[in-house]
Amino acid sequence: MGKKLDKAVTVLTKLAEIGHWIAAVGMVVGLVLTLIMGMEAVLFSPQDFGQSLATYGFEVEVVSAAGQLEMNALRLFCLGAAVILGLMAMVFRNIHLIMKRSENASPFQKDNVRMVREIGFFLLGVPAVGLAMSGIVFAVVGPETAELSVRLDSFVVGLVVLCLSRFFARGMELEADVDGLL
């Protein structure tokens, strides 16, 4: 059961990484197209958008009270979402690499410790980017478009993962001590 679960996690994390990179690139393309083409780049009517767009706790109202699409809000959402999705792609990349490197070896490796620490920092970056981008949207577009709230779930998980990176580092030290005794 353990090997099958490891294989499933390895495959799913690679798929999640690829999906997040595709979404991040899509956000950059959307940003560039709206900068170049303006409203003509948008294939949907404001009613098709709903009121807001959101990703990992970063939310922007893109349709005004008058029912008009706010292009600056859409552009800022694309920018913030691209960064957030890129951070999450890196989280899944590191999880995938840890799983691959630990298939036939100890998980207590120097590179794994570094990657676990990086995962913690990437996860801490998600709400930080969301908050910063919400502040920028608030300043550029106005208070009726910005949602100045941050979900702290990835912040808490990031802190937990940073703590786990210390346990991985200690496990690596203990494993080296045991190897030295044998």
- Please work out how many helical segments DSSP would assign: 5
Largest sheet: 2 strands, antiparallel
Task: Give the N-terminus to C-terminus distance in angstroms.
Answer: 31 Å
**Total count of domains:** 1
Q: What level of helicity do the residues show?
A: over 70%
Mean pLDDT across all amino acids: 86
| Secondary-structure-derived class | mainly alpha
Provide the low-confidence segments as ranges: none
* Amount of beta strand: under 5%
Give the SSE string. Answer: HHEEHHH
Round the Cα radius of gyration to an integer and report it: 20 Å
Shape: elongated
Please list the strands of the largest sheet in the order they lie side by side.
1-2
Number of strand segments: 2
Task: Tell me about this structure.
By secondary structure, the protein is mainly α. It has one domain (2-181). The chain is built from 5 helices and 2 strands, in the order ααββααα. The chain has helices at 2-37, 46-49, 71-101, 110-140, 153-181, and strands spanning 52-55, 58-61. A two-stranded antiparallel sheet has the order 1-2. α1 (2-37) runs antiparallel to α3 and α3 packs antiparallel against α4. The longest helix has 36 residues, at 2-37. The protein is elongated, with a radius of gyration of 20 Å.
Features:
182 residues; mainly alpha; two-stranded antiparallel ribbon; 2 strands; 4% strand; elongated
